[in-house]
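Give me structure tokens for this 223-residue protein.
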Amino acid sequence: MLSMLSRLRIQQLAIALLLTLGLTSTVLSLQRWREPNLPPAERQELLAAFLLLGMAPLAGAAWLGRSLQQTAQTAQDRRLRSIFFESLRLSQGRVNVLTFSMQSHLSGSDAKAYLSDRAREFNATFDVDDSGGLTYCFDLGDYPAALSGVEVTYSVLIMAIPDIHRRQVIRVLQKLTGLSWSDVKALAKETPALVKTKLSLPLAQEFRSRLEAVGATVSIVVD
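Here you go.
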């Protein structure tokens, strides 16, 4: 998870640098190009500079932007799959839309679509209660028995921090992690941010509840 977060941040920084270089060079080149008495030789040099220092960085930023989207989607897919499998483990293979929506922070329609996809992938069955509620039933086979006695630990990640709540979130993070104010500010500077690993489920849930109480969006994933 740390390597994924580092990759996202490096890509974001590279995109910002390439956009700055490309846009600055493009603007300067266009301003210079409009000069009426510019010698032909300088126009050729200016065109080369425009292509190399303007268009090339912008094209690189566009390519990295697509790559960043793919990386973010991969991180989201891993997060949701981790939550999904842990939900199945805790509920002996039975999960409904409301529970999964609360755990994953997806909307009801997105949670239902995700569970329906997994139901097709793993040939799940369905139970419908008297009020029409739908429960997805996945056959875990001997998996619960195989996990008995195996310690499962969890990581807590902050997925989003509204600017209006950032200071309160940083205060809570400092209390939870014991880090210095500057270290916590650096941790919360960009999201997703890994808060803590190797936690028990009750402790991870406590982290999440305290951070969500001050406005953060938090996820728990299996280590």
